[in-house]
Amino acid sequence: MEDFDYLVEREVYLDSACQSLRPRPVIRALNEYYEKFNSCGERVKYPWGVETDKRVEATREKVLKYLKLSKREYFVSFTLNTTYGINLILSQLKVGRFKKVVTSEIEHNSPFLATIAFSQKHDIPREVVAREEDGSLSLGTDFSRALVVVNAASNIDGRKLMNIKDVVRKVHKEGGRIVIDAAQAMAHSADVLYKTEADAICFSAHKMYAPSLGGIIFRKDFLPEIETTFIGGGMVDDVDRESYLLSAEKNPEHLYTKFESGLQAWGEIIALGAAIDWLGNLSKREHQKLEDNYAELFEFLNASEKVQLVNREPNPTMSFYIEGVDSHMLGGALGAEGIMARTGYFCAHYYLDKVRKLPPLVRFSLGYHNRPEDIEKVKKVMEKIV
To answer: Using CA atoms in the order 371, 373, 379, 385, what is the torsion angle rounded to 10 degrees?
Structure first.
């Protein structure tokens, strides 16, 4: 694919679940900001700043459109990453609102650790529930006045929260709120999030072909339950000796400032907009190529008696170990052949180590940059190792 023409022939990048490679249009958008209108957004009136504001606002709208969500009900704030966004929300929720916090066993440490801290801070029970093999969450779970924090797609094997809309409805019906970790869903499984009525969706742009950046898609009627304590420049319209007026309280068009303290990564935000455009313009052929690539690699791994796959079905993200082979050593051997893959527990220690009692794993996570010849190379190298 010409948008990744900087990749040399021997390099096979299989770590998109950590951070995806950036296509040329995204790199150009970021460089254009720095070269042509590098300016502080929302603080200046000169032409460079006006252009920055226009493009940043366009990206906010693109994020909502990407997930088919209404601007009347949601706003978009930008942060550092998914972990930061989840913690920013949970650390500012009002005391006494929830009687328990619920998460699932296949979570990344982002929500898993944040819910532990929330439970301890508010002195309320924490429930860790199992997920079905297809990623669904049991609707028999009690969500009464619960804060639910779960992923839309796993970073272990890509399984999706298939019944997300039913879960959201049940949580709301029982007086709870739900925060979705969408880090692994935004690039290749965004459809699971379309028109969901979750209270907040946190994501990482660097996993969806954009620069390092985070985002919060926040439901407006959830705002009264936030007690703003993380505060600074860019969030206020007026300041007195012992008081201040938040911009979000004065102007309903500036609700996003609730989670945006200090100077933002304007260039990265603008480049995220370019990444969303790029994803939206991908051809059916490119989607099919990705599907063919991960299906072929899954079939190859699944056919080996020595390879133990965590995945039950093909997915761009797949994890495994080889009996009798240290995964970290395997990762080093693959790296020596130009194949870049993640090894370990992928920040999902509880599920993989304590629940499944698995050894450290190898994870192959594919993207739109991967070529059919990449898969052939991986197969040849793996055959030699196995």
So the answer is: -110
* E runs forming strands in 152-230: 177-181, 200-204, 214-219
Residue at 32 is within a domain: no
Residues 217 and 314 in one domain: no
Tens of pLDDT along 33-59? Answer: 999 999 999 999 999 999 999 999 999
On whether the CB atoms of residues 319 and 156 are closer than 8 A, the answer is yes
pLDDT band at 386, cuts 50/70/90? confident
Predicted confidence (pLDDT) per residue in 99-138, tens digit: 999 999 999 999 999 999 999 999 999 999 999 999 999 9
- CA triplet 172, 175, 178: central angle to 5 degrees? 50
Could you give the CA distance from residue 139 to residue 365 in angstroms, rounded to a whole number? 30
Whether the CB-CB separation of 147 and 153 falls below 8 Å is answered with: no
* Domain extent for 265: 37-279
pLDDT one-digit tens code per residue, 259-272: 999 999 999 999 99
Which CATH number fits the domain that encloses residue 350? Answer: 3.90.1150.10
Closest alpha carbon to 234 in 72, 78, 55: 78
Residue 31 covered by a domain: no
Cβ neighbors of 365 (< 8 A, separation 6 or more) are 14, 15, 16, 17, 18, 316, 317, 318, 341, 342
